[in-house]
Write a structure and sequence with these properties.
alpha+beta, four-stranded antiparallel sheet, Alpha-D-Glucose-1,6-Bisphosphate, Chain A, domain 4, elongated, 85 residues
């Protein structure tokens, strides 16, 4: 799902990847919002939500559902944007 007006992107794994590790649902939602603390409007806040369900026999794999890869990506994007301005 892509909602450009509200700056929301949502994706769901439908085969492979996390489903191969016992997940029955793995959905990521990324929302970009204006930073309410920035009066210049030159920064934003990114909210990342992971929704998942995992089979009982694969419950140990639930720890794979983390936002850490997205945090690394956001830090990289931030550094790139700051260095190119």
């Amino acid at each position: 799902m892509i909602d450009n007006e509200n700056m929301v992107k949502e994706t769901e794994i439908i085969e492979g990847g996390y489903l191969d590790f016992g997940f029955t649902l793995y959905r990521v939602r990324i929302e970009v919002k204006d930073n309410p603390k920035d009066e210049t409007g030159s920064s934003c806040v990114v909210k990342i939500t992971i929704e998942y369900e995992v089979k009982e026999e694969a419950i140990a794999n639930a720890s794979l559902a983390t936002i850490e890869p997205f945090v690394v990506l956001m830090k990289f994007a931030n550094e790139h944007l700051l260095s190119s301005s």
